[in-house]
Design brief:
- By secondary structure, the protein is an alpha+beta fold.
- It starts with a strand and ends with a strand.
- Helix content is about 20%, strand content about 55%.
- Strands 2-1-3 form a three-stranded antiparallel β-sheet.
- It has one domain.
- A hairpin with a 6-residue loop joins strand 1 (about 1-15) and strand 2 (about 20-30).
């Protein structure tokens, strides 16, 4: 049996002169989120960060459990 556990988003931001990406996680988002809305969320987080911050991307992670 396949049991849906949840979906999370992780926004990756890059800053000029900094090698390490800044990661912001949003747990428990809706299943199958809309691609445009995901990009909008990333852009909002970029705009709220320091000047010179760039949106590197957003990772969607869906977890399910398989049992007998």
């Amino acid at each position: 049996m396949l049991q849906k556990l949840g979906t999370k988003l992780q926004v990756h931001l890059s800053q000029l002169g900094v090698q390490k990406l800044k990661k912001i996680t949003f747990p428990n988002v809706v299943d199958d989120p809309d691609e445009n809305e995901i990009i909008q969320l990333g852009e909002i987080m970029r705009d709220l960060d320091k000047d010179g911050t760039l949106l590197d991307g957003v990772i969607i992670t869906s977890q399910s459990r398989v049992t007998k």
